[in-house]
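# step 3/5: fold
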Amino acid sequence: MSGSNELPLLKSARREAVGALLIWLLVTIYSVGYCCAYGYNRDPKTLTFILGFPDWIFWGIVVPWGGSTIISAVFAFCIMKDDDLDS
């Protein structure tokens, strides 16, 4: 349905939604892949802790989701635009 007669507000909203979904999708794929690869079938003697978290949880959950929070904040405050709803 994207055409030349599409409202600018709808184009902007669609672009922002795609951006947010891409951030979520990329971080989810990385997080699940990393945790599956490094969290299962592992010798407990190789387990190390970082800031109280097992290393695979820190690198597979804490870091990517903390990073995605920062990326989402930058996206929300710098890239997304506030449009007028009058028309």
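# step 4/5: annotate
The mean pLDDT is 87.
# step 5/5: archive (pending)
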